[in-house]
Amino acid sequence: TLFVVVSKTFSTLETMSNAAAARRWLTDALGEDAVPHHFAAVSTNVERVGAFGIVPESTFGFWEWVGGRYSVGSAVGLAVMAAIGRDRFAEFLDGFRKLDNHFRSVPLESNAPVLLGLLGVWYASFFGADSRAVLPYTHDLARFPAYLQQLTMESNGKSIRADGNPVETGTGEVFWGEPGTNGQHAFHQLLHQGTRLIPVDFIGFAQPTDDLPTLDGAGSMHGVLVANMLAQSKVLAFGKTSAEVLADGTPPELVPHKVMPGNRPSTTILGTKLTPSTLGQLIALYEHQVFVQGVVWGIDSFDQWGVELGKVSALELGPALWDPDRPVSAGDSSTDGLIRAYRLARGERNCLT
């Protein structure tokens, strides 16, 4: 068993709590001498890594300026390389390089990250679109919208410009999404006929990673999937008029309910096939989009002080949760009440102080 502990500072509470639990499990069975043989670290803090018991030969460093949400292409991706192999990881990195070169060299009017970033600014800042849905039509990217949530919202969820002044427009879209056909049976109703403007990014591929025949045995299930994706983008764009609904033989009283207004924005990203290289390109596409939006909004896309404050507050509140003899005094009545409720639910009776 090999544990890879990834922590830039080697002090992140959640990461190090899990690492300590794994270490105890190992040493209880094999003793302290087993730690160097079963642990590797990816970190910039070699002193703390050494204190944990991990030897320098099993420590992988990276640059101090690399933020966590931008780090999968660095040594932080060690676990990814272990899972897919060195050659495939090299393809993954090459995908990043291809998109980096595209962003650096292609004119603005044809530059994919620039266009995607400007579209986001256009709808968020000028049309009041608070969120963007990312809908991959492949289950292999089921967690990609969640990955983008940290990348985009931790980077551009800011209300102060880099010069210290408040922003004067909306920033930081709320990213969310689900794999294609799952979403069609969940929230696409709101996308098509709801009162909120929600731009959509569709992600699909021409060639499947695997495929099955359709119900009649003659067609391609992947083809059905792509047809659904294209149908969604078409209906969002062009909708369906009352005249078209009537022409279908719809009873007059149902016509207003079946009209689709259209003019709902979407972007379709169509790749040849999902490979490590195309995944690297996708990640880099959204990384550079984040940078473009940060420049336009005048904010620093590379800090996260809101996250840092949450970590500090968690360290301060922790002892009140796991020490029943500690007085409940978090500094505000709301948090104090929640701590008392937590202690009661845990069966700890010292809740009235």
UniProtKB/TrEMBL annotation:
Enzyme class: isomerase
Gene Ontology terms: cellular component: cytosol
Catalytic activity of the protein: alpha-D-glucose 6-phosphate = beta-D-fructose 6-phosphate
Keyword Isomerase (UniProt): yes
Recorded metabolic or biological pathway in which this protein acts: Carbohydrate degradation; glycolysis; D-glyceraldehyde 3-phosphate and glycerone phosphate from D-glucose: step 2/4
Enzyme Commission number: 5.3.1.9
SUPFAM superfamilies, alphabetized: SIS domain (SSF53697)
InterPro entries to which the protein is assigned, alphabetical: G6P_Isomerase, G6P_Isomerase_C, Phosphoglucose_isomerase_CS, SIS_dom_sf, SIS_PGI_2
Pfam family, one: PGI
Entry keywords, A to Z: Gluconeogenesis, Glycolysis, Isomerase
Classification via CDD domains: SIS_PGI_2 (cd05016)
GO BP terms, alphabetized: gluconeogenesis; glucose 6-phosphate metabolic process; glycolytic process
A GO term for molecular function: glucose-6-phosphate isomerase activity
Domain of life: Bacteria
Family to which this protein belongs: Belongs to the GPI family.
UniProt-listed HAMAP family: G6P_isomerase
PANTHER family: GLUCOSE-6-PHOSPHATE ISOMERASE
Protein's name according to its UniProt entry: Glucose-6-phosphate isomerase
Source organism (scientific name): Rhodococcus wratislaviensis NBRC 100605
Lineage: Bacteria, Bacillati, Actinomycetota, Actinomycetes, Mycobacteriales
